[in-house]
């Protein structure tokens, strides 16, 4: 056979629309079809021989090419192509079964217990501080039995306390904790839980689902969908933004249930001010400055305390106990702390007596669907959620106010707040462990990460649903793939709630999985050795961040202990030391400005060590006065602590910073953390350090960095000449 003729006909086969359609009918989407064809073409072109029947077909096609009456046609290659495709993609043999398993078009049918009863659905719709959740909770408390499902441990804990204070026995259930109202550990008729932990098998009189708009959340939306469709309660009370009404009504139409909507208005007025704060000198008691990064939190709190004012600090990675203590400190009228610096973590879960919300910036870092980091303006929903915390009903402030730090951001904030909230279009779904187990039965050699990929690629959803982001799940699946675990255990480890940007926590999960696979219990002593417990109070920001990571490790242990009790047996002891660690972190947060100053002194004079949300500690100039502009851009020379400066002065300060940087860097050269490390390791002596500093200063006096003499210039010119030649 002519190789050229064979190749030409193979390419003709690949381009045929009819062949592509047949491929799709047999489970080969465009990507798989292309990969299968490349492999099939390589097999034919590079094999020394092919099967007799395939050779005959190729011969007929090549010999009859261009003739009117064809004995062979390129379409005749399809059976051979499909046979080859099934060898490299085994799933094609069971594609019909896999498609049935991954058919997600009728989620209501997954919950037969809920479909067996006629539920009454009541939607409490309104903005923050409108009393919508209050009315739902009153019905929860008056019922014979009930379940509250919230997005945060703090919210579940608040309802747990409120219920028991009202003499309504209520248990607390979160991923890491079980607290019983009854001393004999009998289950109470009421439960307050985080939404992922709700039971869809237990019957209740009343269920409350809080913050229903989170059903669209790319990562956690599936939990709200599961609760909405699956809870077995006579009455379901839904609380959240009006933007979710249409979606909930459509979802309930598919279950044959009607939705009663109760609208609420804000209980106290909220005013957008006509002027920006512009300077921290203009702060007043009851002010809350909202930042969207830890760097800004550290910077702003440091500047506030430099003015002789006390401030409380709240951000997402703080333990719940520390957040509550900081909120209590800010709310206490007898405490001198009257200013709060916080991230958008205050948007839900904390009751705060705030008079005025001040947006330090209106741009927020986020991660898109491809996992790329982006900086974009906050959405209307986010802005309203945060701004609505001002002027809480029942507090000492009868009216809330909202503004920005910088004058240039104020007009854009007004535009954002005036826009209608985008309606919630779809509800999240996530593959269940049972579905993944059925996939594994058909594809026993596939990794868990591959099983998830195949599931998502084959899944079918209608317009009311979407498949949630599985990147975190796949990250953990790939991380522990080499560890021998059964599929169910592997699945549980991959659903562990951790931040994959925290290396210490990820490493700990890996060690947990490895020891679990060896059937060796993870004891309290082992955990203490791993975390180096007991730990001292933090001396700088880096140590505070590490303590927060250790707290997350304790959370991870407790989360696993409720799923593998025999392998993580010391939950009580771990909870005790976690409470002690919470107290240590509280001390650190109360002294946060001292930690920042200590961080500066440990790096070098004139520099500060600052923690970024996504990167390790980075060094930055102590007197830098550069902030992100309204589009989020930063100067490449100022990886800040970002010190707020009114817009018109930014350029002037940046110029002053650039002119002063070199001289101060030269003075501090040799005294930074690299020099200290070299001294400790014995690679550098004090005498050598003094000599290096002296030489550096001599070079600086000659007006150059590293080329301090004419001779050096000549040498460099000679080298350049050689390169040119």
Automatic annotation (TrEMBL):
Chief subcellular location: mitochondrion
**GO annotation, cellular component aspect:** mitochondrial degradosome
Q: Which residues form a coiled coil?
A: none
For this protein, what reaction is catalysed? ATP + H2O = ADP + phosphate + H(+)
**Which Enzyme Commission number(s) are on file for it?**
3.6.4.13
Q: Name one GO biological process term.
A: mitochondrial RNA 3'-end processing
Family that this chain belongs to? Belongs to the helicase family.
Q: What is this protein called?
A: ATP-dependent RNA helicase SUPV3L1, mitochondrial
| Record organism | Antrostomus carolinensis (Chuck-will's-widow)
């Amino acid at each position: 056979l002519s190789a050229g003729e064979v190749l030409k006909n193979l390419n003709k086969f690949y381009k045929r629309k009819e062949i592509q359609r047949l491929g799709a009918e047999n489970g080969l989407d465009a990507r798989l079809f292309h990969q299968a064809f490349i492999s099939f073409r390589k097999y034919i072109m590079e094999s020394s021989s092919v099967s007799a029947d395939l050779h005959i077909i190729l011969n007929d096609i090549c010999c009859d090419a261009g003739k009117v009456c064809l004995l062979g046609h390129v379409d005749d290659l399809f059976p051979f192509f499909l046979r080859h495709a099934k060898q490299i993609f085994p799933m094609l043999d069971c594609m019909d079964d896999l498609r049935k398993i991954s058919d997600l078009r009728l989620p209501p049918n997954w919950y037969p217990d809920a479909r067996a009863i006629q539920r009454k659905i009541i939607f409490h719709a309104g903005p923050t501080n409108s009393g919508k959740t209050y009315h739902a909770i009153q019905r929860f408390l008056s019922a014979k039995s009930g379940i509250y499902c919230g997005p945060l441990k703090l919210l579940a804990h608040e309802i747990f306390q409120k219920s028991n204070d009202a003499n309504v026995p209520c248990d607390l259930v979160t991923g890491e904790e079980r607290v019983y109202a009854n001393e004999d550990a009998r289950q109470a008729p009421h439960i307050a839980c985080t939404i992922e932990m709700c039971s869809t098998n237990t019957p209740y009189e009343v269920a409350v689902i809080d913050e229903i708009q989170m059903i669209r959340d790319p990562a956690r939306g599936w939990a709200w969908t599961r609760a909405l469709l699956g809870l077995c309660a006579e009455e379901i009370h839904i609380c959240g933004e009006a933007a979710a009404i249409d979606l909930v009504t459509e979802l309930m139409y598919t279950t044959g249930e009607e939705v009663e909507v109760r609208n609420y208005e804000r209980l106290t007025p909220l005013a957008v001010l006509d002027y920006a704060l512009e300077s921290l000198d203009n702060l007043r008691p009851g002010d809350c400055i909202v930042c969207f990064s830890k760097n800004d939190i550290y910077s702003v709190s440091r500047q506030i305390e430099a003015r002789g004012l006390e401030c409380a600090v709240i951000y997402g990675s703080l333990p719940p106990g520390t957040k509550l203590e900081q909120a209590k400190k800010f709310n206490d009228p007898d405490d001198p702390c009257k200013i709060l610096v916080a991230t958008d973590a205050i948007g839900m879960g904390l009751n705060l007596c705030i008079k005025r919300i001040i947006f330090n910036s209106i741009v927020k870092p986020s991660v898109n669907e491809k996992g790329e980091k982006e900086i974009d303006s906050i959405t209307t929903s986010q802005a309203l959620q945060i701004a609505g915390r001002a002027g809480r009903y029942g507090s000492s402030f009868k009216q809330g106010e909202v503004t920005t730090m910088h004058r240039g951001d104020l007009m854009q904030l007004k535009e954002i707040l005036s826009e209608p909230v985008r309606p919630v279009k779809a509800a999240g779904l996530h593959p269940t462990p049972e579905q993944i187990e059925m996939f594994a039965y058909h594809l026993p050699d596939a990794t868990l990460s591959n099983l998830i990929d195949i599931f998502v690629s084959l899944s079918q959803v209608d317009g009311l649903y979407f498949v949630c982001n599985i990147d975190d799940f796949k990250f953990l699946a790939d991380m522990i793939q080499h560890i021998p675990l059964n599929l169910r255990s592997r699945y549980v480890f991959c659903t562990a709630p951790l931040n994959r940007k925290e290396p210490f926590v990820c490493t700990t999960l890996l060690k947990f999985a490895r020891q679990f696979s060896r059937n060796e219990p993870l004891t309290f002593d082992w955990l203490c050795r791993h975390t180096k417990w007991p730990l001292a109070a933090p001396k700088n920001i880096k140590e505070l961040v590490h303590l927060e990571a250790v707290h997350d490790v304790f959370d991870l242990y407790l989360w696993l202990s409720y799923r593998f009790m025999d392998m993580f047996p010391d939950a009580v002891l771990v909870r005790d030391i976690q409470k002690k660690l919470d107290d240590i972190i509280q001390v650190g947060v109360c002294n946060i400005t001292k930690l920042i100053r200590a961080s500066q002194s440990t790096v070098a004079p004139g520099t500060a060590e600052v923690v970024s949300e996504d990167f390790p500690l980075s060094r930055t100039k102590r007197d830098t006065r550069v902030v992100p502009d309204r589009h989020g851009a930063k100067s490449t020379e100022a990886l800040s602590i970002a010190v707020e400066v009114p817009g018109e002065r930014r350029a002037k300060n940046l110029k002053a910073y650039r002119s002063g940087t070199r001289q101060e860097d030269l003075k501090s050269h040799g005294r930074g953390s690299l020099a200290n490390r070299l001294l400790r390791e014995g690679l550098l002596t004090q005498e050598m350090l003094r000599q290096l500093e002296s030489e550096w200063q001599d070079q600086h006096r000659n007006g150059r960095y590293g080329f301090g003499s004419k001779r050096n210039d000549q040498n460099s010119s000679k080298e350049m000449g050689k390169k040119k030649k």
